[in-house]
Amino acid sequence: MLRALGLAAAAPGWGDTPIGAVVLGPDDAVLAEAANEREKRGDPTAHAEVLALRAAAAVFGDGWRLTGCTLVVTLEPCTMCAGASVLARVDQVVYGADDPKAGAAGSLWDVVRDRRLNHRPRVTAGVRAEESATLLRSFFRARRGL
Ligand SMILES: [Zn+2]
User: Fold this and answer.
1) Which of 37, 49, 76, 131 is flagged as catalytic?
2) 131 an active-site residue?
3) Tens digit of pLDDT per residue, the chain (146 long)?
């Protein structure tokens, strides 16, 4: 999570929201990492989680399955990213701050543990949540010019 927080802290440098993600292999080695690059790439899907999952799939496994892997992200995943972690078959999602406005790992929806889906990653919430929330608060405060 410390590594993900470091990535998150860099994102405002190119105008993106400070969110960072790391994908760990079954042996806990870092497979891939990314920060939010939505503004940088002009891509609505360039969330840190999606970029990290894509990069991890390129170096691990049979092409796209991330069986045994863990997605670590500083903010609770949105519906797209929660969906992507289910589709990637990660074993575990670990996140920092809750996102009551858009979170899809328990706050607003619970896409990752929906019993109707055939794969449900384990979820660990609240890891270094305050550090993640502080990064986000400072970013939005600066953007509002306060
Ligand atoms: Zn997302």
Assistant:
1) 49
2) no
3) 999 999 999 999 999 999 999 999 999 999 999 999 999 999 999 999 999 999 999 999 889 999 999 999 999 999 999 999 999 999 999 999 999 999 999 999 999 999 999 899 999 999 999 999 999 999 999 988 86
Q: Determine the length of the chain.
A: 146
Residue type, 145: G
On whether 78 is known to bind a ligand per the annotation, the reply is yes
1-128 architecture in CATH?
3-Layer(aba) Sandwich (3.40)
**Alpha helices per DSSP H over the chain:** 2-10, 38-41, 48-59, 79-87, 129-143
pTM of the complete model: 0.96
Could you tell me the residue ranges of all domains in the chain? 1-128
